[in-house]
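User: I'm putting together a small comparison set for a docking exercise, and I want a reference complex before I start. The sequence is below, and the ligand is magnesium ion. Could you produce the 3D structure with the ligand included, as C-alpha cells?
Assistant: Of course. I'll restate your input first, then give the C-alpha cells for the complex.
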Amino acid sequence: MSSRAYRTVGLVVAAGRGERAGGPVPKQYRKLAGESVVARSAAALLRHPDIDAVAVVIAPDHTDAFREACGHLPLLPPVAGGSERQASVLAGLEALSAHAPERVLIHDAARPFVPHDVIDRLLEALRSAPAALPVLRMHDTLKQVCGNRVTGTVERNTTVRAQTPQAFRFTPILEAHRAAEGWALTDDIAVGEHAGLDAIAVEGSRELFKITRPGDVVRAARHLSTGTETRTGIGYDVHRFTEGDRVMLCGIAVPHHRALAGHSDADVGLHALTDALLGAIGADDIGHHFPPGDARWRGADSSRFLAHAIELVHRHRGRLVNIDLTLVCERPKIGPHRDAMRRRLATLMTVPVNRVSVKATTTEGLGFTGRSEGIAACAVVSVALPIDDAETPG
Ligand code: MG
C-alpha cells in the first residue's frame, strides 16, 4: 500500500460470511439493481467530499468476488480480515495507519445507503470529541424478557439504536483496538468505551438499515426503486483543434497530431457530460460553475468539473442511472480507446462500467468536424432523484 497521506479515510468491514441473509452469495456481494451491496457502501463513503480514501476489509478467500464487485471504484487495496469483526477492523486500521490519517469512519458493508448529511454530522462531532456515532431514537416501548416472560420495562428515553459509520480520531481508536485485541465487542464505539473515549451521538437515518435477513435484501431493492423519479440531462460541447500531439477525451490522453484548444484541458467529452449532469438536476451549466475567465481553471484537469457535478447530484440524494456519450470527429479514431474511456468514466463517477456508454461517429466529411477543425461531444444522462427532493433542485 502506498503511504500517501490522507486526512479522512473510510474503512468498510466486509469480511463476514453473511449467511443469515440467505442465498449462496455472501450478503455483501449480493447485487441491488446491478451493483453489489459492498460497492454501494464503499462508494457512498468515497463520494463524500471530505473523505479522501476508502479501504475495504474482506475475507481472504473473497478476493475475486471483491474485484468483480468493486473493480470500478478507486479504492485503496483490500485488506485481509480476521475471523471476527473486531479482528477485521484492527487489520484495517493497521493498514490505514500507513497513510497517517487524522480521522476514520468505520462502516459495516451491510449498510449500503449512507446519507451524506449523516457523515457531515459525524465529522462535525469529531471536532469536540474523539468518537461519534449515528443513532436512531426508539419509538416502541422496550421490554426485558427472560425466555418469553416479561421481566421489566426499559426506560426508552435513554436508549437508542446504534448505526454505522462510526467516526473516530484515528490514533485513539487504533490504540483502543490494539488494547482490546482478542475481545469480542460488537461495535467500535464499545471498543472506544473500554479505552475511555468519549462518544457523541448524532442523528442517524432510517436509510442506514442493515441487510441481515433475507427480507432486508428485498427491502433494499425496494428502497432503490420506489420514491424516485428519473431526470434526464443533455450536454453538448465543441472544442477546436490547435497545435499539439494529443487530445484529452473522457479523461484519456489520446495521441494525435493536434490538440484541442480551451481554457482547461479542453476535454470535450467530460464537458458535455458535466453539463448533462447539471442539466438533470436543474443546476445551471458548466460555465456558471467554472467561469472560463477564471485563472484557477487554466489548464485544469476537467475531471474536477465532472467531480463537482457528481457531488451536486449526490447532494440532491440523486443516483446516476446511466450515461450515453457520443464523440463526433473524423480523427482520432475512438474505437481503440473506447474501453479505457468507459472504465475511466465509471471510476470518475463511481458507477459500474455497464452503465457507461461511449460511442463515436463521423459526419461523413461534412461540417466543421468533417473538415477536422474540432471535436464535438453530446452526452445524455439519467439520474434517479427522490421525489421529495425532486421538487426543489438547484
Ligand atoms: Mg468545453
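The two ends are 40 Å apart (CA to CA). The chain has a mean pLDDT of 92.
User: Thanks, that's exactly what I needed.
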